[in-house]
Amino acid sequence: MRVLVTGAAGFIGSTLSHRLLARGDEVLGYDNLNDYYDTALKDARLALLTPKPGFSFVKGSLEDRATLEAAFDSFKPDRVVNLAAQAGVRYSLQNPRAYVDANLVGAFNVMEIARLLKPRHFLYASTSSVYGASPTVPFHESDRTDFPLTLYAATKKAGEAMAHSYAHLWSIPTTMFRFFTVYGPWGRPDMAPLKFVDAIENDRVIDIYNHGDMSRDFTYVADLVESVVRLIDCVPERGSSDDSVSPVAPFRIVNIGRGAPVKLLDFIETLERALGKKAKRNYLDMQPGDVPRTFASADLLERLTGYRPHTSLDEGVAALVEWYREYRRAHGDLAY
């Protein structure tokens, strides 16, 4: 296949691109390489992809309609995986405009171009944050998601609604992913897993919100990418089954999570064992926009693909720590 991956220099996008190339697909990566976090990390990810046969790259933002359209038009992808977005819950409190630009205007541009060029499958990354502080667990794709707690979650929920309307109006087969706390090698330094590893290794204090009374459905990146690759080949048809397919559009929503939430303090203890060091802890109240827990139902994912994320926390954390130490030896400390 010819797969266009936006956000290809990102954590998930780069890992997905490697996986697609390994199975023989052609990949066009698209990324603006912004400085939301350490650009050296993005450059290092991209440096591993660029020499690979079948990979090409265009630098540009989703908001840059002309560059984006030229990339689509020249590559003519069979499949589009839109991972580019302004991510991060807490940053949305500081710079809300970035979320409107990337997650609303940028998403609109991608959908408009998909409408014109009609890829065989359009896939779009959403987030578990759309569930808000839902009291019902595990979170199912059919649950109400009408009460986002942050602008980040609101823009992702809006993206889901926009994509559904495009799928209905223009018959674009569309799959939305709701990702649950992804971690692993080449991760994002603004997210707790890598941020904690870096702080503990360097004897810095880690901030623990809600005094540690939180849990997250930590999902290992290779498991998530395997799920995405299998879903690429699982094209929804209008009203095709009793799963999350829309009755009026070839549109489906799928959770991608391990379905096994871990208490935050247990996660920190797992990091301590892997690093061989104790964390210096600073307990704080809950931050605005945070939720006490996330918990995916992975039943639909397994029913569609025969697969569900399975990497244990001990395995995943060990791989993260090993990668982190190798990266520091090769590239130096992470910048924030």
Can you walk through the features of this model?
With 336 residues, the protein is α/β, with parallel strands linked by helices. It contains eleven helices and 13 strands. The strands form four sheets. A seven-stranded parallel β-sheet has the order 3-2-1-4-5-6-11, with helices on both faces. The chain has a two-stranded parallel sheet with strand order 7-10. The chain has a two-stranded parallel sheet with strand order 8-13. Helix 2 links the parallel strand 2 and strand 3. Helix 1 runs parallel beside helix 2, helix 1 crosses helix 8 and helix 7 packs across helix 9. The longest helix is centred in the first third of the chain and has 22 residues. The two termini are 37 Å apart. The mean pLDDT is 96.
Compute the number of helices.
11
**Topology, number of strands:** 13
| Shape verdict | globular
Strand content: 15-25%
DSSP helix fraction: 40-55%
Radius of gyration: 19 Å
Strand order of the largest sheet: 3-2-1-4-5-6-11
pLDDT averaged residue by residue:
96
Order of helices and strands: EHEHEHEHHEHEEHEEEHEEHEHH
Q: Which structural class is indicated by helix and strand composition?
A: alpha/beta
Largest sheet: 7 strands, parallel
Low-pLDDT runs: none
Distance between the termini: 37 Å
